[in-house]
Specification:
The chain is mostly helical and about 290 residues long. It has helices at about 5-35, 40-65, 80-105, 115-140, 145-175, 185-210, 220-230, 265-280, and strands at about 235-245, 250-255, 285-290. The chain is elongated, with a radius of gyration of 25 Å.
């Protein structure tokens, strides 16, 4: 049985990513000062948007930790979805900017200078980026969270972008005296655009459903039904099941009809046993079982 991942673990993961972005901004900014490469300049601006995205995710996670109040009785978990949509928009704008810069460079090709520091940074950060991606994906798999899924998509896009940029700059550097190599810089940028668009789409598609209170995924529904079947002798009839997500939290409402001759204490005991079984199998679930009249 999977144990729920604590909010502190996810917060530490975002803190590591935030420090990584700050270091990346510093190193890539230095490389951009000594290079005329449009790829390095575009990456510098993309790293800045990545930093804003991770910072927004970190602050949102801190805000979601607050206890529900009289105005938001279910908490503010959906703030995660809104931030994820904003991150997707930032990625889309970054992709459009990189495309514009690459188009100009294709129309007027020139040899890139001072790219060696950028190549080394791209290589190092490709390894680090994939490491953070696998860690974030693992945490998102242990306990579903829109923020962590968005960050996993972001870091996969980031690491793949760095790999494509570093590879293209390395080839262009080795064959820098050949005119055909001058086109590698902008062409690599278009490869990075594809990764950014993919990440933006993944963030948007994973957030819209929960904002519309869509039913949870099929695997979770099957877990709930499995426990209802195991406890089928405890109730007379299943009327309906309602479920939705709010950030990392899952809310499940089950309406059951019990035998009319049972005492309320007996009904309450059956409800507690069923609720405990469902909660243990679905980390982060807030289960409500409501007696329903025939």
């Amino acid at each position: 049985m999977n144990r729920p991942i604590s909010t502190g673990t996810r917060e530490r993961s975002l803190q590591i990513a935030l420090l990584f972005c700050l270091l990346d901004l510093t190193l890539m900014g230095t490389a951009a000062c000594f290079s005329n490469s449009v790829t390095i300049l575009s990456d510098l601006l993309k790293e800045f948007t990545d930093f804003l995205s991770v910072l927004a995710a970190f602050l949102t996670l801190r805000a979601v930790q607050r206890s529900p109040d009289h105005r938001f009785t279910y908490g503010i978990g959906k703030l995660e979805n809104l931030v994820s949509l904003s991150i997707g928009l930032i990625m889309l704008l970054s992709a459009l900017f990189v495309s514009w810069r690459a188009s100009i460079h294709l129309a007027h090709p020139r040899m890139a200078h001072g790219t060696l520091p950028g190549i080394l940074i791209f290589s190092l950060y490709t390894l680090i980026g994939y490491g953070i991606y696998f860690r974030t994906r693992f945490l998102a798999g242990r306990q579903p969270s829109v923020i962590m899924k968005s960050q996993a998509s972001l870091w996969f896009s980031k690491a793949s972008f760095d790999a494509a940029m570093g590879g293209a700059l390395a080839v262009a550097y080795l064959f820098r005296t050949e005119e055909w190599s001058w086109y590698l810089d902008p062409l690599a940028s278009f490869v990075g655009v594809l990764f950014m668009l993919h990440a933006a789409w993944a963030m948007a598609s994973s957030s819209v459903g929960d904002l519309l209170d869509a039913t949870v995924e099929e695997t979770t529904q099957l877990r709930i039904l499995n426990h209802l079947v195991r406890h089928i002798d405890d109730y007379e009839k299943l009327h309906k099941i309602r479920s939705r997500r709010s950030g990392p939290h899952l809310y499940v409402e089950i309406f059951l009809e019990f035998h009319p001759e049972l005492k309320m204490a007996e009904v309450d005991q059956k409800i507690r046993h069923l609720r405990q079984a469902i909660t243990e199998s679905i980390p982060g679930a807030d289960v409500s079982i409501l007696p329903h009249a025939p």
